[in-house]
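Example record

One chain of 379 residues, shown exactly as stored in the release files.
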Amino acid sequence: MKKFVSVFLLYFVFIHFTFSQDDVEVNVVGYKFLDYQSGGLPDDLLKTKSVVFVSVPTVSKSSSERGDWKSFSTEAHTTFKQLGIDPVKYYYMDDVLSGTEVTNSIAGEMKKREISNIIVLSHVRLEINNKDAERYVIVVTPFSGDANFMNNGQVAWKNQDKNFEKVLKALTKNAGKLGPPENLLVNDVPEYFESIDFIRGRRNESFSEDLRIDKLAVPKFEDIYIPQNAPGGMLNNVIKKQAEDYNKLVGGLNSKLDDVFKKYPYEYGITDPKMDEKALRAQGYDYILLRLNTSGESVKTLLGYELDDIMDDYVTVKQTSDGKTIFRSIPKTAPVYKYYIKHIYSGDVYLGTGWDADEFWFEALENHLNNLLKTIEKK
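Predicted structure tokens for this chain:
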């Protein structure tokens, strides 16, 4: 059964670490402790299928809107094809990790397509010695076969440089050690992920009135797992410190979650995100609260909303404590949080009335609950 890990996407948060020297070690796999010292590229890289997880800087330092990741992917794909690497699909990282059900579905699709390796392709904007800088990073590592995508301790190849061409040359040099390629039918152009059908029941742009009597599961935030036998190296040591710092914040996040739900008048419980659907039903839960976190455009696509290509912004409807309605415009390529509720047994999803996504998780949750109460209490 699927597990509801509410902080899963934090495993791949893009973090850069700045030191006193003239360069940095850039982490593009989040809270994953990979072994960068034990080996090179996967032996089967030129014989099997791969996928590429891509990240790029925002369009500007003052904007949260998604940058042009497809042009970046196209540039890399030319080299991948020449080498005999077969990347069957390119995913933007935020979309892959947007929510538990999407992540599980993508991992399932990758396993079905017999994907062997993951290439993490990143362009990172950062500061070095108080000066603007950028780094290009490629990480290549085996696909774990599940929604973790990669396991702590597994071997990975990594190269980074301020010059993308140098990173591609390093990949070319190391790929040459693997022998002649067997992938001879690589696509000429990248195939991009747009959406995946993860809703197994009916899709409803409404709220279920049964929430008045049925119990709602609300997965809590959980600590980042830090393995005792994590691989060494400066980068992994810093990741460990960052994970420890995040874990100190989990209590506060769950307190905020409790505060937001104080206004919810129906039966609910704060649950362990590791509990699967069978365990939740055994404890009397009929519904579960879920969320997506990626660009508004991607959220709408994943949840099956109609898209308006003319619009540059999406309008969020917010209700104030004194009953007033506020309309807020957010660029459609900027990241937002969007909550929805799933009926566990049937798989039916309830997206709510109106577009209530917001830039911060607690505001998106407040929007969703306000709309829910306003709608149900009227009936």
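Notes: The longest strand covers residues 115-128.
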